[in-house]
Amino acid sequence: MIAASAGGEALDNPVLVEVTRGGRVESRHRGTVAVVDASGATVFGSGDPEAPVYPRSAIKVFQALPLVETGAANRFGFGNRELALACASHSGEEGHVALAADILVRAGLGEPNLECGCHWPSSGTVARQMARNGVEPTQLHNNCSGKHSGFLCTAVHEGEATESYVQPRHVVQDRIRRTMEDVMALRLDPDEAGVDGCSIPTYAVPVRAMAHGFARLVGETGVERSRAQAGRRLIEACMAEPWYMAGTGRADVSLMEAAPGRVFVKAGAEGVYCGAVPELGLGFALKIDDGAGRASEAAAAATLSRIFRDRDAALAERFAEHSRETLRNWRKIEVGDVHAVA
Amino acid sequence: MIAASAGGEALDNPVLVEVTRGGRVESRHRGTVAVVDASGATVFGSGDPEAPVYPRSAIKVFQALPLVETGAANRFGFGNRELALACASHSGEEGHVALAADILVRAGLGEPNLECGCHWPSSGTVARQMARNGVEPTQLHNNCSGKHSGFLCTAVHEGEATESYVQPRHVVQDRIRRTMEDVMALRLDPDEAGVDGCSIPTYAVPVRAMAHGFARLVGETGVERSRAQAGRRLIEACMAEPWYMAGTGRADVSLMEAAPGRVFVKAGAEGVYCGAVPELGLGFALKIDDGAGRASEAAAAATLSRIFRDRDAALAERFAEHSRETLRNWRKIEVGDVHAVA
Fold first, then answer.
1. Alpha-carbon distance A93 to A284, whole Å?
2. Which top-level group of life is the source organism from (chains A, B) (predicted)?
3. pLDDT tens digits, B197-218
4. Taking the model in full, what pTM does it have?
5. Which residues pair with B340 in a beta bridge?
6. Which residues form the domain of A188?
7. Which residues make beta-bridge pairs with B161?
8. Are B19 and A291 in contact (CB under 8 A)?
9. Which residues contact A284 (CB under 8 A, 6 or more apart)?
10. Partner-chain contact B3 A23, CB within 8 Å
């Protein structure tokens, strides 16, 4: 941890999102955005897109590529829902938990094989319903249980030991690391990895590189055709079944449902958001400096609005509406909003 | 809301708190701190202490002064626990709810007289236990129910109508506004107020003015003796019964318990923290630009550590420990920390 402060220089990323109350700005969120095409050219952006940030869950599609590429997804009957769940940070609702359990059964495994840990669903509504029903969380409720089930299916398909599959040098994580190196066109050092919430390694990379990775997959440029096809299959699955990728009332779902089949988005912890627009061959990524999810959601919507501004005014307006959320207090009185700054 | 963006100029407040993962800074929180003595002199600080911010719940002590000053607290048998609850943002635990209900009964009122609204306790543990027991939240579970019960006791004591007591021009809120104007030595305009989570007005004031208000109460300077005495009584009640001011595991409690009877602190929403050190006649206040509670807690501990640095090294060290929290993932693996920057 001693090295931490060395990275603590104050960045001058711009304010991307404001939170208002009574007509006054109450809080502000700074950050970085990069929208990139498959050639790596920045279409637009703000802040410092070269500063390394942990992508966290926003690049689960990259981490799920081996599941498709090895043939494990086909062998274990992965349709759109299973593939979306393998790319998900899900809300631990019954449908998510049941499907993750089913996937493990298909691979001859079960909940004890997971190494993601237990947590209560982040949605208070879901957690309280579980409590009412006398249900305690298992590893299947972990928001990453679909991704981990996919890891385990890949290992079983390849005849690899499943134990310790979360460790940076396990063959499962090594394969994922090499895949991410290829997709983002950079090198990742296991000795430099952080540990993610679900115990797998997370590698700090530039926001621009994340965006470029998504652009290369949907633009089918710079990576092998089979890899791009695997990426498209995962992205199309998420767009077809957004609920399995997130859950009831989640921003990932409402943003993808705003443009069905045309826009992919994925949130990550600590204010990260990634996405892709296949019809334009564009990828985007953003990081809110302070890690706030409310700001990353507004900024993702604003980024999509900007992408479509000169191409589809109606869609741009729909995303602009998503970039502003009215805040109401406990008596439903409107008190302010969260909005992206133009 | 149109005026909001006018306040959106990027401030250059310094980074006060960093969040690390894997030896790297993952997220950063900027903000403003002011430590002020009763004369109004700034002892130390950082950022822009003159920029107006909403104090939110961090100045509940100021809002509770009329409860003591009118004699209502004495009439309705307020001891330390009741006074602490009147200054609380409590966790809605059984003891908080029961005491708020009891206070209302003493004034001949009940839960329906509250106008704070219902919400589930923010603590997932508390909320899930309620759900298990088949309990639904009432207005008594609102974190502000103690403060509102105090408002109602004051109105009953004064023979005022209690209905609409949350409105900016109701006599209850008018009295509070004039009290806050005196304590912070500034003018507050009801037409400029924001609406707080519990529906009462919240007035944007400089961080320095909040700190000065606390310093004037504990320094017994610049306000009438009876007002300072009322403030001391409230602050001493909070220090004596910190659990009633917050709840199990809350930062307010752990910080006050680190120096029993010597330090007062109070969190507010959107990254505000206020406090006072009676033995030194000092007040402090801080605001995290992005509104993050994790950062305001670390910054409050660091501020207290700095206040005691040259006066009580052991206590300063204890607060320094509170300014750094280790982060563990779902399998209890240490993944990083939240720490105040020196």
1. 28
2. Bacteria
3. 999 999 999 999 999 999 999 9
4. 0.96
5. B17
6. 2-340
7. none
8. yes
9. A33, A34, A35, A36, A211, A214, A273, A274, A275, A276, A277, A300, A303, A304, A307
10. yes
Q: Show which of residues 127-166 on chain B sit within 8 Å of chain A, judged by CB atoms.
A: 127-132, 134, 142
Instruction: Choose the closest CB to A333 out of B119, B195, B292.
Output: B195
CATH number at residue B299: 3.40.710
Q: Do A8 and B18 touch (CB under 8 A)?
A: yes
Mean pLDDT of A330-339: 95
- Kindly report the nearest CA distance between residue B228 and chain A, in angstroms: 30
What are the φ and ψ backbone dihedral angles of A337, each rounded to 5 degrees? -155, 170
Query: What distance in Å separates the CA atoms of residue A251 and residue A304, rounded to the nearest whole number?
Result: 13
Residues B254/B297, Cβ–Cβ less than 8 Å: no
Distance of alpha carbon A289 from alpha carbon A14, whole angstroms: 10
Chain B residues with CB-CB distance to A26 below 8 A:
53-54, 194, 270, 291
Mutate to test the interface with B, among A25, A46, A120, A205 (most CBs of B within 10 A): A25
Inter-chain CB proximity B29 and A1 less than 8 Å: no
- For B285, what's the count of Cα atoms within 13 Å in the CB-facing half-sphere? 30
Q: How many domains does chain A have?
A: 1
Q: Which residue of B has its CA nearest to A53?
A: B26
- Predicted pLDDT at B9: 47
Residues in CB range of B74: below 8 A, 6 or more apart:
none
Please give the interface size between A and B, counted as residue pairs whose CB atoms are below 8 Å apart: 214
Measured distance CA(A310)–CA(A327) in Å, rounded: 30
DSSP character at residue B4? G
pLDDT class of A12 with cuts at 50, 70, 90: confident
Residue of B nearest to A21 (CA): B194
